[in-house]
Design a protein that fits this description.
Blueprint: E1 2-10, H1 15-27, E2 31-37, E3 42-48, H2 57-62, E4 67-70, H3 76-119, H4 128-149, H5 151-163, H6 168-193, H7 204-228, H8 230-237, E5 242-247, E6 250-255, E7 264-267, E8 276-282, E9 284-287, H9 289-292, E10 298-300, E11 305-306, E12 311-312, E13 317-323, H10 329-342, H11 348-381, H12 383-400, H13 404-423, E14 426-428, H14 431-437, E15 442-445, H15 447-451, E16 457-463, H16 469-480, H17 486-497, E17 506-511, E18 515-520, E19 523-528, H18 530-536, H19 543-549, E20 554-560, E21 564-571, H20 578-587, E22 591-595, H21 600-610, E23 614-616, H22 621-633, E24 638-642, H23 648-653, E25 656-661, E26 673-676, H24 680-716, H25 720-723, H26 729-752
Parallel strand pairs: 15-22, 15-24, 22-23, 24-25, 25-26
Antiparallel strand pairs: 1-3, 1-4, 2-3, 5-6, 5-7, 7-13, 8-11, 8-13, 9-10, 9-12, 14-26, 16-21, 17-18, 18-19, 19-20, 20-21
Helix pairs in contact: 1-11, 3-4, 3-7, 4-6, 4-7, 5-6, 6-7, 6-12, 7-26, 8-10, 10-13, 11-12, 11-13, 12-24, 12-26, 13-24, 13-26, 14-24, 16-17, 20-24, 24-26
């Protein structure tokens, strides 16, 4: 049987590494797929357990110079934390190493500048002692930089020679060592070679500066990359470390991993909620902004749900732990954000294809340009000059053509976008969803709980039976005790307030999209909408409810098999931001259609209030599905926003399913996007986020491509015969370092954009 596992990978330097790892893992017998994400440094691998096991992956990867870390072995959240710590200490090491080499780069740079200016007689000659000193010290500095700081690039070459796998380190390694060896030959045997090489330049400065530039670029890139992922860090930071629990009548403080289900936990003013649970005693206002993005503190009474990571304000209360460890909403959110950040956007597929062939192609281009210089250049420039220019081209091509910027373009933007969403209470399942969201042209929305608050109240009672109002209501309430629909709460709340008792019901049934039924005191009763009464084939004057439904109220008709006993009207308030959000969605060119199981007239009334023109009312769950399918068959890209509970099939059918988390108790796995504390304004924000992220990706890809498209021919000396343009390897190094840094910086800008 095939199973899927996740690992972290350390030691990757560039996207091409990801490609190499994927390829070698796929070669292992039994491995059906391997996906490596360079930005999150994670591996998702599917393999047949009977043919191979996780132990066989590690050696395969280690011989390529990477390390595999099993995240499942330890509590995943803690492991994430340590992985992060490791990355931060690695970053420090990188910083120390590269910063200690910067004086060498500056010295080299000054020497270079002096030599150039000298040629134009802008500065005095160096003087013989100084020049002699410099000629001796440069090879020493270059040796240090290449063999100490440039070690990863040299092992890139060894790996290439041993396994035939080249990555960007290989390119830089070959480039810099070529410059070094050529210069070394000139220094050591310059006099002997004089007849062949009258212009014997050395390129120690190239080796030194390129390695230091690229190291600096990599350091800056790694530093920003950690920043792109700091949403996870913030989420992890929301987790309380300890909880004050009542055990054997005593209050004791335990670490949160020791909290068990059913523990009673004491919360004092200012405390962080350690796990999820329901209040058993006391009340307070809770700041849930870290989860929902909503700034207002929320009042929580007995029986209300409290969420780990949120913060108590002034009150004190006791609550019972109902979800602990990886079950808490916060843990689920962290896992979802982690997964989403590690997932690949479809737009990435092309980039992956290019990066995979990039390195070998660049090697070929580099050699072709070297030989072209030697063959065609020698005729007009002489061998010595041609060799010198050929070497420059060879080195420049290898240095400039790093697919790094290309590889960082998409994932860094996705990481920042997904993280930004999480901060606003917009949970995105994967990169593909984030990419699709900005393309939707039609949005189906559910009425109850999406456009309206979802907490209807009972507003009218029209009892046409011979029974008293009290009997009528207690029968209706009896049926509703078994229902989960918001309507049932409206009726039960009303009855409770009037101190009436619901009757006992047996053989309760849900009649999908229409209502409910059950037996009370031996008689079968039905409660629901007009469609239900139609099905019963009993006499009912529809006109009698119209005057209510025209005001947007929803009828609940109570009937036996033979006659209608009367009806009540429930009414649900429209969420304050519904209308403005619908307006904005329309402005974005998205057609909004309301699909609801509610009464036709009531649905049209609510729709008119929020500015929706298309309404499908009295829709059964299957109808909702069909509406979506039909739109899709006409080529529309359909989003569906619903409450995620009884809309699950429609959410799954839509191109993008958007679950509106009413309150904070939501199943976040069920749809592509979950809006916590779900208002439609958050949906508008989510669409904006998708636009902003995709724009960032397109900018990144554009610049990364342009950079290579111009850079490679320039470096190869393609423009030299026409314009005398040739790229100095030092500028190639600078450009390559800048391109990666600028891509990551551009992705980070997504963070500051207003949604
Ligand atoms: P929606 O979520 O759009 O209301 P549903 O499929 O959940 O769609 O319900 C469809 C309709 O069935 C409701 O609008 C209501 O008229 C009727 N209905 C469902 N459940 C109940 C209930 N518990 N009591 C009375 N009517 C109900
Ligand atoms: Mg519903």
């Amino acid at each position: 049987m095939s199973i899927q596992k996740k690992f972290k990978i350390s030691g990757m330097h560039c996207v091409s590494c990801a490609g190499i790892i994927e390829k070698s893992l796929k070669k292992i017998d039994g491995v059906s797929s391997a996906e490596v994400n360079y930005s999150t440094e994670s591996l998702t691998i599917s393999f047949d357990e009977s043919k191979s096991n996780s132990n066989s992956f590690s050696p395969e990867i280690e011989k390529l110079g990477y390390t595999l870390i099993d995240v499942q072995k330890v509590e995943s959240l803690e492991k994430l934390d340590t992985f992060r710590d490791e990355k931060i200490s690695l970053l420090k090491k990188m910083k120390n190493e590269i910063f200690s080499a910067i004086p060498i780069a500056i010295f080299t740079f000054l020497v270079m500048a002096w030599e150039i200016l000298m040629e134009y007689n802008l500065v005095p000659e160096m003087g013989e002692t100084l020049e002699g000193f410099i000629h001796k010290i440069m090879p020493l500095l270059a040796t240090y930089v290449l063999f100490v700081i440039g070690k990863p690039y040299l092992s890139g070459i060894t790996r290439f020679l041993r396994y035939g796998k080249a990555n960007m380190d290989t390119l830089i390694g070959i480039g810099t060592i070529t410059a070094y060896v050529y210069s070394f030959i000139v220094t050591a045997f310059g006099k002997t070679l004089l007849p062949f090489l009258e212009n014997a330049f050395t390129y120690y400065d190239v080796t030194i500066i390129v390695i230091i530039f690229i190291g600096l670029g990599k350091y800056l890139e790694a530093r920003s990359k950690i920043k792109t992922g700091d949403a996870i860090e913030k989420l992890l930071g929301m987790q309380a470390k300890t909880a004050l629990v009542i055990r054997n009548g005593k209050e004791i403080e335990v670490s949160i991993s020791e909290v068990v289900l059913g523990d009673l936990i004491i919360i004092k003013p200012g405390n962080k909620i350690p796990v999820d649970g329901t209040i058993t005693e006391g009340y307070s206002f809770l700041d849930e902004s870290m989860i929902t993005g909503e700034p207002m503190a929320v009042k929580k009474n007995v029986d209300d749900l409290v969420i780990a990571g949120t913060i108590n304000t002034n009150g004190s209360f006791i609550f019972k732990a109902t979800r602990i460890g990886s079950e808490t909403l916060l843990s689920q959110i962290i896992k979802m954000v982690e997964d989403a950040q590690g997932s690949k956007a479809p737009i990435q597929a092309l980039v992956d294809k290019i990066s995979a062939v990039f390195v070998p192609i660049v090697l070929v281009v580099a050699f072709v340009s070297l030989f072209s210089w030697l063959i065609f250049g020698s005729a007009s420039l002489g061998f010595s000059e041609a060799l010198s220019l050929g070497i420059i081209s060879f080195v420049s091509v290898l240095i400039i053509a790093c697919p790094c910027a290309l590889g960082l373009a998409t994932p860094t933007a996705i990481i920042v976008g997904v993280g930004k969403g999480a901060k606003e209470g917009i949970l995105i399942k994967d990169a593909a969803t984030l990419e699709k969201l900005h393309k939707i042209d039609t949005l189906i929305i559910d009425k109850t709980g999406t456009l309206t608050i979802g907490k209807p109240t009972l507003v009218d009672i029209i009892n046409t039976s011979k029974n008293s109002d009290e009997t009528f209501l207690s029968i209706l309430a009896g049926l509703e005790t078994k229902s989960e629909h918001p309507i049932s709460h409206a009726i039960l709340d009303y009855v409770k307030e009037k101190s009436m008792l619901p009757r006992n019901v047996s053989e309760f049934m849900n009649i999908e999209g229409k209502g409910i039924s059950g037996i009370i005191d031996g008689i079968e009763y039905f409660a629901g909408n007009t469609a239900l009464i139609n099905d019963l084939n009993i006499r009912f004057d529809k006109k009698s409810i119209e005057k209510y439904t025209e005001q947007g109220k929803t009828p609940v008709i109570l009937a036996t098999k033979n006659e209608v006993l009367g009806f009540v009207m429930v009414s649900d308030e429209i969420k304050p931001d519904s209308k403005s959000s619908i307006d904005q969605l329309h402005k974005m060119g998205i057609e909004v259609i309301m699909v609801t199981g509610d009464d036709e007239k009531a649905a049209h009334y609510i729709a008119s209030l929020v500015g929706i023109k298309k309404v499908v009312a009295q829709a059964l769950p299957a109808d909702k599905l069909n509406v979506i399918k039909e739109l899709q068959s006409k080529g529309s890209l359909v989003g569906m926003a619903g409450d995620g509970v009884n809309d699950a099939p429609a959410l799954a059918q839509a191109d993008v399913g958007i679950a509106m988390g009413t309150g904070t108790d939501v199943a976040i796995e069920s749809s592509g996007i979950t809006l916590l504390g779900g208002n439609l304004s958050k949906l508008v924000k989510a669409v904006n986020l998708s636009h902003i992220t995709m724009r960032g990706i397109r900018q990144n890809l554009f610049w990364a491509f342009i950079y290579n498209v111009i850079g490679i021919p320039l470096a190869a000396g393609f423009f030299y015969p026409f314009f005398g343009l040739l790229l100095n390897p030092i500028f190639a190094g600078l450009a390559m370092a800048l391109s990666s840094v600028s891509v990551v910086t551009n992705s980070l800008r997504i963070k500051t954009k207003k949604l």
